[in-house]
């Protein structure tokens, strides 16, 4: 049996932009991607603390040390600048492997999205 488990989590970051005219995705500062072990193109779930929206998109690499968290395309309608969101990715693992798997969870500074 295989189950889905939490793989990566960026807990409470501030949205820095929303670009409706971009083709889609979420742009994430490269430092945050590396620290959370999320790769470019990976499917992610977004949870908006401010309005309760939950949706899925994929990650793209933003400029390192920029603090950028930009929702692009249709997802831009689900957030406003300065909203606080959680970014989550999941992995499918064998049941026994899942019991001992340790996810990557980071807690950036939600004022500027830096790693402290």
TrEMBL record:
Location(s) in or outside the cell: Cytoplasm
* Residue numbers binding substrate: 57, 73-75
Q: Which Pfam families match?
A: Asp_decarbox
**Cofactor, free-text remark:** Binds 1 pyruvoyl group covalently per subunit.
Which superkingdom? Bacteria
Q: Which family does it belong to?
A: Belongs to the PanD family.
Q: How does it assemble?
A: Heterooctamer of four alpha and four beta subunits.
Protein name (Swiss-Prot/TrEMBL): Aspartate 1-decarboxylase
């Amino acid at each position: 049996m295989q189950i889905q488990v939490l793989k990566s989590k960026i807990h409470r970051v501030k949205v820095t932009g929303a670009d409706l005219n971009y083709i889609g995705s979420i742009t994430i500062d490269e430092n945050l991607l590396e620290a959370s072990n999320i790769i470019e193109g990976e499917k992610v779930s977004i949870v908006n603390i401010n309005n309760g929206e939950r949706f899925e998109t994929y990650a793209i690499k933003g400029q390192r040390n920029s603090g950028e968290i930009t929702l692009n395309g249709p997802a831009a309608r689900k957030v406003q600048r300065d909203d606080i969101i959680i970014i989550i990715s999941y992995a499918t693992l064998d049941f026994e492997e899942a019991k001992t798997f340790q996810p990557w969870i980071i807690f950036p500074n939600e004022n500027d999205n830096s790693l402290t």
